Amino acid sequence: MSKVADALAPFALIALLLAVWEAAVRITGVPAYFLPAPSAVAVALATDTGSLIQAAWNTLSVALIALVIASLTAQLIALIVGLSPFLERAVRPLASTLQVTPVVAIAPLVLIWAGIDHPERAIVALAVLVAFFPIFSGAVTGLKAADPDLERLFDLYGASRIQRVLRLRLPSAVPFLLEGHKVGAGLAVIGAVVAEFGAGSGGVRGLAWRILDAGNKLQTARMIAALVVLGLMGVVLHALLDRLERVGLAWWRGR
Amino acid sequence: MTSPVAELTSVEVDYPKRGRALGPFDLTLGAGQITALVGPSGCGKSTALRLLAGLEQPTHGTIRRAAGRGETSVVFQAPTLAPWLTARENVALPLELSGTPRKLAREKAGEALTRVGLGSAVDARPAQLSGGMAMRASLARALVTEPRLLLLDEPFAALDEITRRTLADDVLALWAQTRPAIVFVTHNVEEAAYMADRVVVITRGPGRIAGEVLVNAPLPRPEGFRATAVFREASEAVSQLLAKGAEAVA
User: What interface predicted TM-score (ipTM) does this complex get?
Assistant: First the structure.
């Protein structure tokens, strides 16, 4: 009984808030462009379902492409850096600078570089930038996280540098890489959305563009509908990545 | 006696911040001999072991090691198995690193695991093994290369008394098959007297040799060896040396 209640609690709260919102809108009669009723948002959701899903996919696919690129470059650079403490010292400050610079601030510059005809390239590049750091940082930490006694065994048996990386450091880094990718994937979506805002109209017709577009037309219900889809996508993605991380860890540990 | 497997001659080890950790220290290991290094914590026993393994170089003095690459094995305090590999893959690792074809290495690993009594757990991951089983797998990994010198760094410290005793007998039985020289570090006096022909007692750090006790009894030990006078006298002698070694500096 209490389990069912626990599971239903968040939905009950949402239903309650929606009801209050609906009632408030109807009683006060605020204009729909200012605050549409949840029912109006539901109508917008229902009529635009197809195009909203398309927009969500546009954003998500950009984020996924960015994630793949970020994953490959971050791990490659981490591997190179991991082989040389000198290089690591050289790269660290740059990587940190990259991490703390807000993506919105770099967006205009990247948009110029990508060219007016290819805003989608800029959006991918910006999403790559945000997804890069957690993966890179996880990889660098993970590559140094091998059991020191296992390192000694590799010394003892005269392992080559490549053997040490492939057979000890990389597998030892797996938990850190999983965590880095989980965080990186979430950030890639945020990066893609922020970059879409930066790019303004056109380009990738993703969820952010839907929000901007509806906003320009003062179609507030459609704005909120796009936000709802964005939120749902985030929740599903997070749950999925969480699950993937746990499965990955269980496989790595063997239980 | 045949030529020694390893020889430390007046070695000293200084660490940058800790200062002198070991020495001056002399130790000669005969082929097939089982030597126990006993001493209080921080006396440099593990340092001595790393010198013998060639994992560390002394600040002064010389090391001569007859055992070449791949002929020395180390078992650490913890099983130190790679969690992402099965027991068999873990044991095959030393062979694969030195270029043995994968299939042959895995075969030999399976045999080594069977010898330590883990024949039915070859495909288990370390997380699925008990502490004693994991230590056995670690022992199998050390033996799979058929080393001339086997170094054990407090290998049973984390195990319960019954498991330690069984493992001690198992190590001696395994030793009897290929007779590598064994050096093991322990701070357990009885374990030292039980397993070694020769117990070297080290003083409180920086470690020097406080004395040596020879245990004149057949190896592997006959049943009931712990109740014999030889065992009790050896244990007593080691204890006294330990006490003297602790006084010397304190």
Answer: 0.85
Burial status of residue B57 (CB atoms within 10 A of its CB: 0-12, 13-18, 19 or more): exposed
- What are B183-226's pLDDT values in tens digits? 999 988 999 999 999 999 998 878 888 888 898 888 888 888 99
Nearest Cα to A142, choosing from A123, A114, A168, A116? Answer: A168
Strand, coil or helix: B64: strand
B4: number of Cβ within 10 Å: 16
Q: Across the interface, do B84 and A174 touch by the CB < 8 Å criterion?
A: yes
B54, B76, B128 member nearest A255 (Cβ): B128
Q: Do B125 and A254 touch (CB under 8 A)?
A: yes
DSSP state of B120: G
Question: CATH assignment of A37-253?
Answer: 1.10.3720.10
Residue of chain A with shortest Cα separation from B142: A153
CB A75 within 8 Å of CB A177: yes
Domains of chain B: residue spans and CATH: 1-71+148-250 (3.40.50.300), 75-146 (no CATH)
Say yes or no for a CB contact (<8 Å) between A147 and B125: no
